[in-house]
Write a structure and sequence with these properties.
With 436 residues, the chain is an alpha+beta fold. 22% of the residues lie in helices and 28% in strands. Strands 10, 11, 12, 15, 16, 17, 18 and 19 form an eight-stranded antiparallel beta sheet that branches. A seven-stranded mixed beta sheet has the order 3-4-2-1-5-8-9. Helix 3 crosses helix 6. The relative contact order is 0.11. About 17% of the residues have low confidence.
Length: 436
């Protein structure tokens, strides 16, 4: 059967579950991108796995080793809303159907929700932010024809619907964890096999028998003589040994993430004045960068967080225009304002054609709410294959946000022309077109 990818919806963006590996360790851990970086939710994951606090060991019996390493494509820092996605991933891994990063798949399960000890799916917070952060990935998956199932607690279904998901994607309310697994094509616990490290399959029947014998002896429930134990467990010469289901086929190795994937801060162009643009006479500049996938990666992987974007400066091509980006595809754009002294800055992005999704919410300081010194950046994601034409207007003032600057921001949003001087503020206005 086909592989299924599992994505955890977080407020910071989607986090793909890359793989689940049995480990001979004292504690289960969650790591970032197959690195040695252990994420803060590891303690919670270990409690979610082991008895009596957790449910994974109970629902997915396994042979030793006694712990798991779970790798994700992006940080999952706190809370418990990752539990539903992790449960689904364990169910898929138990039948050899969890898709690793870079592995082709026909279905993606996006999940958020807490799972209690009775496997009931409990509601979570910040649904609007999670839906907003998911939008670029959902758009990309739909364009590629990938089947997407968004599963969530019943109490959160209406919130997802109000959040404005892409057309054709509706949240599915699931009241228990196995109902969520059914959306991934894993129907019941009885269909799952233990996740077994290669090379340990042959000892599994003996380990199960020894474990069960020890448990019965401890409870005082076995009064049979030792010579009767083989008969009790169906292992005598007169009774055939029941067949043992083969171990799940290990998932093929995932596509490694290149070193370029972590290079998110580019070197400036050889002529700084062509890519760092002054804003009037103020000690402030604007830098626009195109966000490209690293070698061997795609924009969907960038949007999902399994690959970091490579930022390439966009240079000015003339008065009021930016040059086209020569490299393709373009996954998004980054707008950075650098203030050398405390300044009030307003940034307005007006769409001429196409559309975009905020991959990082615009900082409040780029709405002129307060002065800042240093750098403030805003990133947007672009759906693949659609040209995006826009204008960006930056207004800079030394004084607090006043009526003149408020009016200028409204005019810029409406597309009206603004004077480049006067009004107590400086103005920079540029036009650009990006082709994802």
């Amino acid at each position: 059967m086909s592989k299924v990818r599992v994505v955890i919806a977080t407020t910071e963006g989607p986090a793909e579950i890359d793989r689940i590996t049995p480990e001979d360790a004292a504690q289960s851990v969650v790591c970032l991108r197959r690195s040695s970086q252990v994420l803060p939710i590891s303690t919670g994951y270990d409690a979610f796995v082991r008895r009596p606090s957790g449910v994974i060991d109970r629902e997915f019996p396994r042979a030793p080793p006694s712990a798991y390493r779970l790798d994700v494509s992006a940080p999952v820092t706190n809370g418990e809303s990752w539990q539903l996605g992790v449960f689904i991933a364990h169910a898929l891994a138990a039948v050899g159907r969890l898709a690793a990063s870079g592995e082709p798949c026909e279905r993606v399960i996006v999940a958020t929700g807490r799972v209690d000890n009775d496997l009931r799916v409990q509601p979570v917070d910040s649904i609007y932010q999670k839906a907003h952060a998911l939008r670029p990935l959902l758009d990309q998956l739909q364009m590629r024809g990938v089947v997407v199932r968004l599963v969530a607690p019943p109490d959160n279904q209406a919130e997802f619907e109000r959040a404005g998901l892409p057309r054709g994607i509706r949240p599915t309310a699931v009241d228990d964890a196995w109902a969520a697994c059914a959306e991934a094509g894993v129907a019941a616990a009885s269909s799952c096999r233990p996740i077994v490290r290669p090379g340990t399959e042959s000892v599994r029947p003996l380990q199960w028998a020894i474990g069960l014998v020890a448990l019965l002896l401890a409870c005082g429930a076995v009064a049979l003589a030792p010579e009767r134990w083989p008969v009790l467990f169906g292992l005598s010469s007169s009774a055939p040994v029941p067949p043992v289901a083969p171990a799940a086929t290990p998932a093929p190795p995932a596509v490694p993430i290149s070193e370029a994937a972590v290079a998110t801060t580019p070197a400036l162009a050889s002529d700084p004045s062509s890519s760092v643009l002054p804003i009037g006479g103020q000690p402030a500049t604007l830098a626009v960068a195109a966000l490209l996938p690293p070698a061997g990666a795609t924009c969907p992987q960038v949007h999902m967080g399994s690959s970091g974007a490579v930022a390439v400066p966009v240079e000015r091509s003339g008065v009021g225009t930016l040059a086209p980006v020569r490299q393709k595809p373009v996954c998004g754009l980054r707008f950075s304002v650098i203030a050398e002294k405390p300044l009030h800055v307003g940034v307005v992005l007006r769409v001429i054609s196409g559309r975009y999704v905020e991959s990082r919410r615009k900082p409040a300081l780029l709405d002129g709410t307060a002065a800042f010194i240093g750098t403030q950046s805003w990133e947007i994601s672009l759906p693949s294959g659609l040209a995006f034409a826009y204008s960006v207007t930056v207004l800079v003032a030394e004084s607090a946000l006043g009526d003149d600057l408020r009016l200028a921001l409204r005019l810029a949003a409406a597309g009206d022309e603004l004077p480049t001087t006067g009004g107590g503020f400086a103005v920079l206005r540029l036009k650009h077109e990006a082709v994802p």
